[in-house]
Design a protein that fits this description.
About 45% of the residues lie in helices and about 10% in strands. The chain is of the alpha/beta class. The structure holds 6-O-phosphono-beta-D-fructofuranose (F6P). Its main location: cytoplasm.
C-alpha cells in the first residue's frame, strides 16, 4: 500500500503550501470578488462556505488529486457495497442502511452483506421501535402500577449515549413535552443520583442501551437503577420498567430484561454510528416516529450525495480534504466546532467521539506506524458562550485553530428576536478570524480617539488581530429533523474521507481497551499497581476513605 506521503499530489501540496503561506485571506478575497460563490458547495439548501480557508483553486485541485490517488472513490464504493471495511474486526460499516428504509427516506440505495439485502431486518426493527414508541407516547404502555410512563432514562455511554442525547436536545423544538428525557452515562454515582432524584418510579422507563451489553459503566448504572426500582416497586416491576437495546440477546436475558422488550441492531453498526438504529429509541420516544424518519431521511439524502456527487461538489469530500489540508500541510493540531445554536450544545462532545475515536489512530490499515498526523483534537462550545471564554485564543493565540461555524437561518425558539444577534455574532466571528485588524488600523483608531503616542505604541500589538485564521461555515436553513440528520451524516462521511487519505481504519477503537483492563485489575486487586504513582495515589485513596 502506498503511503499517502509518497503520492505526487502529497508532495505537490507540501511545495504549494510553502508558496501559499504568505498569502492572506484578505488578498485572496480581494483577488476574487466571487470567492464566496467559487469556494462554497451546496447539498440541497445546506451551504458549505469554505471561502475563509487559506486555499486557492490550485490547493483544491491538488487536494482532489490526493483523494483520487488515495483511492477515495474505490474506498467509498467498498463502504457502500457492504465490504468488510472494518478490517481489524472483519465487519462492514453499513450504518447508511439504517436510514434508507424505502417507506420514508427512499434514497434509492440498496445495502447488502455477502449478497443478502439487509433492508428487511432494518425495516422490521424500525417498525417494532416505532410501534413501541407510539404505545408509550400514547399511554397504552403503562408501568407496573398502571400509571402512564412520563419519564425516560437512557442508560448508555459513548455512542449509546452521545448520539441520542445530541439529537434529543437538538430537536427540542420538535418535542411535544409529553415525556421527560434524561441520559445517564458516567459511572460516577452522582450522575444516576441526579437523574433519579427527579424520577418517579411508577412513571419511569429505563432504556439500557449498549451494543455489547458488557460495558462496565452501563452495566453498573443499569444494575443500580434496577435495584432502585425494585426497592420502590418490587422485583416484578422490573419487567415493565426496563427495556434493552443491544446486539447481545444472551447478556440482555442474563441481566433479567425480557427479550420481548429488547430492540436489536447488528454488529455492522459501529457504536458511534448507531443513533440511527434501535439506539435511537429515546429519540423516537421524544419526537415520535414520523420525525425520526425525517431525521433518517436527511441522513439518507446525504448518503446519496456522498455516494454520487462528483468529488469537487461533494460536501463530505471537501470537508475531509480541508481537514487533511489543515492537519498535514498547515500543521494545525486542533479543530474547533462552534455551533451557533444552543440546541446543538452537545455537538462538540458528539464530534469528539465521532472524529477522535474514529481517526485517533497511529497505525495504517495494514498495521504499519503512520509517519503523518491523523485526527486533530476536536473541541468547542456553543456560540456565543465560547466568545466569552476561549475565542481570545482563537483570535490572538500563538497557533491558528480551524473552526467550523454551524449556523441556522430560521429560529424555532420562543424568542426569535434574539436570533439576529446570534447569527450576526457567528458571521462576525468568522470574518474577524479571517481578516483581523491591522496594527495600522488599531493605532490610527487610538490616535483619532486622542490617546497619547506612548500609549498607542504600547497597546497597538496587544490590540492587533493578525487574521488569516481559517474557518468553514455550514449554513442550515433551520434546525429540524431532516437537516439535523443531514448535518450528522455530513460529518460521518467527512471522517471516512479523512481516514481514507490517512489510510487508517476509522471503524475500530482498540485504544479504549487498555484503560478498561487496568481499571478492572485495580478493582479486582490483581497484582497490585506496578508504578509508584498509581500505588501512591491508591494508598492515599485508602487513607482518605479509611479502608
Ligand atoms: O468507548 C468504547 C466504546 O466501545 C464505544 O465505541 C462505544 O460507543 C461505547 O464504548 C459503548 O459501547 P456499548 O454500546 O457496547 O456499551
Amino acid at each position: 500500500m502506498t503511503k499517502p506521503t509518497e503520492f505526487s499530489s502529497w508532495k505537490s501540496l507540501i511545495e504549494h503550501q510553502a508558496k501559499l503561506k504568505g498569502t492572506t485571506l484578505a488578498s485572496l478575497f480581494a483577488a476574487d470578488p466571487a470567492r464566496f460563490k467559487n469556494f462554497s458547495a451546496t447539498f440541497g439548501d445546506v451551504v458549505l462556505d469554505y471561502s475563509k480557508n487559506g486555499v486557492s483553486d490550485v490547493t483544491m485541485g491538488l487536494l482532489f488529486d490526493l483523494a483520487r490517488d488515495a483511492g477515495l472513490e474505490e474506498a467509498r464504493a467498498k463502504l457502500f457495497g457492504g465490504a468488510r471495511v472494518n478490517n481489524t474486526e472483519n465487519r462492514p460499516a453499513l450504518h447508511m442502511a439504517l436510514r434508507a428504509p424505502a417507506a420514508h427516506a427512499g434514497n434509492g440505495l440498496a445495502f447488502a452483506i455477502d449478497g443478502k439485502d439487509v433492508a428487511p431486518q432494518v425495516e422490521r426493527e424500525l417498525d417494532l421501535l416505532c410501534d413501541f414508541a407510539d404505545e408509550v407516547r400514547m399511554g397504552a404502555f403503562k408501568g407496573a402500577t398502571g400509571k402512564r410512563i412520563r419519564h425516560i432514562v437512557n442508560i448508555g455511554i459513548g455512542g449509546s449515549d452521545l448520539g441520542p442525547a445530541l439529537i434529543v436536545d437538538g430537536l427540542r423544538a420538535d418535542i411535544g413535552g409529553k415525556l421527560q428525557l434524561d441520559f445517564v452515562s458516567n459511572v460516577d454515582g452522582a450522575h444516576l443520583d441526579l437523574v433519579l432524584s427527579r424520577a418517579v418510579p411508577e412513571k419511569t422507563l429505563f432504556i439500557v442501551a449498549s451494543k455489547t451489553f458488557t460495558t462496565a459503566e452501563t452495566m453498573a448504572n443499569a444494575k443500580a437503577a434496577r435495584k432502585w426500582l425494585a426497592g420502590k416497586l418490587g422485583e416484578a416491576a422490573v419487567d415493565r420498567h426496563f427495556v434493552a437495546v443491544s446486539t447481545n440477546i444472551e447478556a440482555v436475558t442474563a441481566f433479567g430484561i425480557n427479550p420481548d422488550r429488547m430492540f436489536r441492531f447488528w454488529d455492522w453498526v459501529g457504536g458511534r454510528y448507531s443513533l440511527w438504529s434501535a439506539i435511537g429509541l429515546s429519540i423516537i420516544l421524544a419526537v415520535g416516529p414520523h420525525k425520526f424518519r425525517d431525521l433518517l431521511a436527511g441522513a439518507a439524502a446525504v448518503d446519496r450525495h456522498f455516494a454520487e456527487a462528483p468529488l469537487t461538489e461533494n460536501l463530505p469530500v471537501i470537508m475531509g480534504l480541508l481537514q487533511v489540508w489543515h492537519r498535514n500541510f498547515c500543521g494545525f493540531g486542533s479543530q474547533a466546532i462552534l455551533p451557533y445554536a444552543q440546541d446543538l450544545w452537545r455537538l462538540p462532545a458528539y464530534l469528539q467521539q465521532l472524529e477522535m475515536e474514529s481517526n485517533g489512530k497511529r497505525v495504517t490499515r495494514e498495521g504499519q506506524p503512520v509517519t503523518w498526523q491523523t485526527s486533530p483534537v476536536i473541541w468547542g462550545q456553543a456560540g456565543t458562550n465560547g466568545q466569552h471564554a476561549f475565542h481570545q485564543m482563537l483570535h490572538q493565540g500563538s497557533e491558528p485553530v480551524p473552526c467550523d461555524f454551524i449556523l441556522t437561518a430560521r429560529d424555532r425558539s420562543a424568542f426569535p428576536e434574539q436570533h439576529q444577534m446570534l447569527f450576526a455574532n457567528g458571521l462576525a466571528q468568522s470574518a474577524a478570524l479571517a481578516f483581523g485588524k491591522s496594527a495600522e488600523t488599531v493605532s490610527a483608531e487610538m490616535k483619532a480617539a486622542g490617546k497619547a503616542a506612548d500609549e498607542v505604541a504600547f497597546l497597538t500589538p496587544h490590540r492587533t488581530f493578525p487574521g488569516n485564521r481559517p474557518s468553514t461555515t455550514l449554513l442550515l436553513p433551520v434546525l429540524d429533523p431532516y437537516h439535523l440528520g443531514a448535518l450528522i451524516a455530513l460529518y460521518e462521511h467527512k471522517v471516512f474521507v479523512a481516514a481514507t487519505i490517512w489510510n487508517i481504519n476509522p471503524f475500530d477503537q482498540w485504544g479504549v481497551e487498555l484503560g478498561k483492563e487496568m481499571a478492572n485489575a485495580l478493582l479486582a486487586g490483581k497484582g497490585g499497581p506496578a508504578d509508584s504513582s498509581t500505588a501512591g495515589l491508591m494508598a492515599l485513596y485508602d487513607r482518605y476513605t479509611h479502608r
